[in-house]
Amino acid sequence: MANYELLEEIEKFGRENKIPILLDDTLEYISKILNDVKPMRILEIGTAIGFSAICFSKYLAPEGRIDTIEIESLRVEQALENIEKVGVQSKIRVLEGDALDILPYLNEEYDVIFIDAAKGKYLEFFEHALRLCKKGGYIIADNVLYKGMVQSDYNKHKQRTAVNKLRSFIDMVLQNKNLESKLIDIGDGLTVSKMIEK
Ligand code: SAM
Predict the structure, then answer these.
(1) CA–CA separation, 28 and 34 (whole Å)
(2) Reported pTM
(3) Cα(45) to centroid of ligand 1, in Å?
(4) 26-31 average pLDDT score
(5) Confidence (pLDDT) at 51
(6) DSSP bridge pairs for 68
(7) Most buried one in 18, 127, 137, 154, CB count within 10 A?
(8) Sign of the four-CA dihedral 80, 111, 124, 169
């Protein structure tokens, strides 16, 4: 039996150590989608300490599985430890490496794909997600409004490249005719796309 009560402790560790784990309102929004879909397969890009993947595992169909990709080995270690502590190791597979190296090797289809990693690579992640998402499935991307900067005209030089890339990303998502997409102003900004045609 999974011990989801430990999630509180994992969340506290994440917040105290400034690890950018899912915000409460974003988690609540995504949980509603997952609760409706009852996914068999979820793909996550950006595991961190496993907080979101463990939360998502509550909504899987029986026999459902999550693949989650993380580039930093310390985070992979922490995620594996947390997944084991909660007792959901049979439901979550952590893949270590740069998602852009791993994604080309994945070839099954997923019901829900969650993008939550390097903002500068969202366009590339999304290209893979389009290939890997089932018809009728969802692609969700977090942090697309980047602390309000994407909707502001006044951004520091340092953030300008990421902001421009996120703007192009949002345009591409909203214009894709195979998707029914919306941009939602909760947490750090979320795009939610349902793949209506493939
Ligand atoms: N989804 C996690 C949660 O809510 O609990 C938080 C993920 S955190 C926002 C982003 C994670 O993506 C970081 O741990 C970072 O190391 C990882 N990351 C960044 N670029 C990546 C890449 N190219 N491939 C895989 N992981 C990446």
Answers:
(1) 10
(2) 0.96
(3) 6
(4) 98
(5) 98
(6) 44, 94
(7) 137
(8) negative
